[in-house]
Amino acid sequence: MDATVSARINMMRIVLISGIIFVHVPHDPATSPYLGTFGGLDWLRVFLADSLFRIGVPCLSAISGYLLFHRGIEGFDYCKTLRSKASTILLPFLLWNTAFLVLVYGAQSRGIGFGYLPDVLHAGPRDWMNLGLAIESWPINIPLYFLRDLLLCLLLSPLIALLVLRYPRTTLALMLAYAVLPLPNGIFLKKSILFGFSFGAAMALHRVDIKRLDRFAAPIVAAVLAMAFLLSLALYAFGPEFPVWLDMLRSLAAIAGIFGAWALSALLIRTATGQALSRLGGLSFWIFCGHYPVLVLFWMVWNRLGIADYPLFYAASPVLALAILVSTHATARRFTPGFAAILTGRRAGGPKRPVAGHPQMKPDGSIAQRR
Is 73 helix (H, G, I), strand (E, B) or coil? Predict the structure, then answer.
């Protein structure tokens, strides 16, 4: 794979996942952004959580589909893929989700945590299966639904590849309709994941030059930001219960955000910060799996302290969550590297040594050939 494309993918993962933290900052009915209690801050919360950073899931799905098939259909080994993903996706999902489920059970058995999380203590076997394995509904660690739906896409990957190879326009049009229209979810918890994965697979299998629009990167980013801004105004005006047409627009805008996120990567990778972020693969997965439990813990402590200043909580909790997750990841890599590797799905991260003759990236994002 082109070294620049690989770096941009790694960089956008951590950027998008850091943005997803804002989607999951807790609040209660009294501090809902749609009440307008905090004025402009409430609109900003809607802009970040319900509009801008909703692009994260479709874009991460497209990245997964593209990476799976970037060697072409001839380089795709279904059995090998399933064995690999069992250790890089399924095992981390089970470990992170089960650990949080056990912690919640332990807390609730001591009378702590009721009202913040599902009632695990009195849940039946079916509820336990759903909270632990996300068979029919959301897992206890809610953001991990992405890994659950991604595993479904991987199981269906031969069929998806066949359809996007033979009937790309029809397949993507039908999947877009499924993602946007008010249709039943079926086996997926988030319909946009199927479209994003299939879109990424189609780009790889048809050898589409995904850097073709890089020269228009700035206008594309500006257009997506404008779209997110206008959408947030409508959401703020109609929420929290959105009419069907607005919910469809929100789904469509999240999918269109794939282009904006990729265009942004073309601009960021030219910076030193962007290149540094591109070497943090394991950290991005750690943040993704760990941020929700940390945010819920903050919210429980905050309410226990009785502090009424919610804007302070909203401003501080994402920053503190990132600080804790970055430090715990660094600590785990240093003292328990094997366990850290399992929890991050063998995503090492960190700079790699240059290989003679291998394309290397210049500071401006272009490629230099080592001699």
Answer: helix
Which amino acid, one-letter code, is at 117? L
Query: Can you tell me the distance from the alpha carbon of 33 to that of 40, in angstroms, rounded to the nearest whole number?
Result: 10
Determine the Cα–Cα distance for residues 107 and 121; give it in Å rounded to an integer.
Answer: 9
Taking the C-alpha atoms of residue 32 and residue 344, their distance in angstroms, rounded to an integer, is: 33
How far apart, in whole angstroms, are the C-alpha atoms of residue 227 and residue 258?
A: 13
For residues 347 and 281, the answer to whether their CB atoms sit within 8 Å is yes
Summarize pLDDT for 54-84 with one digit per residue, the tens: 999 999 999 999 999 998 898 889 999 999 9
DSSP codes of every residue in 221-284: HHHHHHHHHHHHHHHHHH-SS--HHHHHHHHHHHHHHHHHHHHHHHHHTTSHHHHHHTT-HHHH
pLDDT digits (tens, 9 = 90+) for 104-131: 999 999 988 888 899 998 889 999 999 9
Residue 359, Cβ density class (10 Å: 0-12 exposed, 13-18 middle, ≥19 buried): middle
Task: Determine how β-strand 367-369 pairs with β-strand 359-361.
Answer: antiparallel
Region class of 345: left (phi > 0), else alpha (psi between -120 and 50), else beta? left
- CA dist 26 and 296 (Å) reads 7
Residue type, 231: L
